[in-house]
Amino acid sequence: MNRLFPRGVSLIEAVVAVGVMAFGMLAVVGLQVTLRTNGDLSKQRAEAVRIAQQSIEEWRAFVAIEATPIVVDYQELISDGAAVNVPGINATYARTRTITVSPGGSPPMKTLAVAVNWVDRNGATQSVLLNSVIAGVAPDLAGSLAVPTDGVTGLKPLGRSRAIPLLAKDLGSVSGFMPPQPVGGGVTWVFDNVSGLITGVCNLPGRTTPTLVAADVAACSANTLAQLLRGYVRFASVMAVPNATQAETPTGLPLDLNISLSLTSVPVHPQPPICFDDAEAVALAAVPGASVSYYCAVFSNLVGTWSGRSRVVPLGWNIGAAAGEYTVCRYTPPAPDDLAGGKNKDHPLDYTQPGSVAFSSLSGQNFLVTSAAHLCPAEAVAVGDFVNSNTLLHQNGTAIYNN
User: Fold this and answer.
1) Is 85 a domain residue?
2) Cβ-proximal residues to 39 (8 Å cutoff; 6+ apart), any chain
């Protein structure tokens, strides 16, 4: 009997050990299940955040303020009628975008809330909510007051040169753009997508930029070479002296005008520059704070540099010092910009050939029209302020600032 007793104890010990090990294995398995569930949920939440962020950026990248075919415009930013299913890697997400319009205000504001919901592996509903505010500022204007960099050929917005207007229709290696012109006009510019230069001028009456196709410009895409000069004319309120804030976000009524560009370059250019603007339509709409966009084609000379003056030509109003007349200012850095060696990109009173970059275009050459009773608003350089709303006198009808 004494010999059998230890054998029985060993068996009991073995059974107990197996039981303890089984409980331990169950705990490990439970831990692994919990880790897998939490990891899976973290992955789903990260993907939901990505979907929400992508939805916000898609709407923040609107191309135009007014309703514009084909492209995403500010007017299209409205609440979703129903949730949209977005397939994910390990779940299906329901995305809902809700827009709340802030009443009044200049510029207008829309608050965007993006909710992304999904069902996890346990059958529980999970959600992520991101909020953002989208200002109703024309994309070209958003950074147009800041002084642009020297012309480069690197591909930028929409995979094209930054010199090409955003509304230009991508047609492959080139883009087509019909500048603002009277009804029935067919002038079409063809841009090289890499250099941003105008390489063709076509006459396509009855067409619009969104309806252009590659076949339309095939025969006229290499019949010229021109550089683009473009910008905006903005209008300050005549009720009070414009300060830096009014210069940055003007609230005045737009006026009808033309833009003229006279050249003094040597060698001479093959033909005079041609300018287009949308002033007539903008002035007719009479929306406070609206801006006029203009585009000038400078047909390149042999060296690709140019000099001259751009001017605002009033239609139905006057530039001068008398009551009821106006002054034209130009957005430019606070430092004097008319000295020898100045850069054309800084929008000087006179463009110079030494200040130009050969075979490059200029954007952000903006004007501000204000009452003749007011001085051009100035803004000192401030750390962290990346918007240049400083202006200098450009036209007042006297001396060298004539109209």
Assistant:
1) yes
2) none
Whether the predicted pLDDT of 304 surpasses 90: yes
Is there a cis peptide before residue 267, judged by omega within 30 degrees of 0?
yes
Looking at the fold, whether 206 and 115 belong to one and the same domain comes out as no
Express each pLDDT in 321-354 by its tens digit: 999 999 999 998 876 665 555 789 989 999 999 9
DSSP one-letter string for 285-326: HT-TT--EEEEEEEE--TTS---EEEEEEESSS-BSSSTT-E
Helix (H) or strand (E) holding 10: helix 4-60
Q: What is the pLDDT of residues 115-136, one digit of tens each?
A: 999 888 788 898 999 999 888 7
Bond prior to 107 in cis (omega within 30° of 0): yes
Number of domains observed in the structure of the chain: 2
**DSSP-based three-state secondary structure for 189:** strand
pTM here is 0.66
pLDDT at 151: 46
Could you say which of 135, 160, 191 is where a domain stops? Answer: 135
pLDDT at position 23 is 72
Looking at the structure, tell me whether residues 95 and 160 fall in a common domain: no
Do residue 276 and residue 337 come from a single domain? yes
Res 155 pLDDT > 60: no
Same domain, 118 and 210: no
Same domain as 173, residue 112: no
Compute the distance between CA of residue 310 and CA of residue 261 in angstroms, rounded to an integer: 4
Please check whether residues 95 and 131 belong to one and the same domain: yes
User: Containing domain of residue 113, as a range?
Assistant: 58-135
Contact 288, 253 (CB under 8 A): yes
pLDDT per residue over 359-393, tens digit each?
999 999 999 999 999 999 988 766 555 667 889 99
Q: What is the CA radius of gyration of the chain?
A: 31
Residues 260 and 354 in one domain: yes
105 with 154, same domain: the answer is: no
CA nearest 152: which of 338, 387, 359, 389? 359
Token readout for 129 is: 């909510």
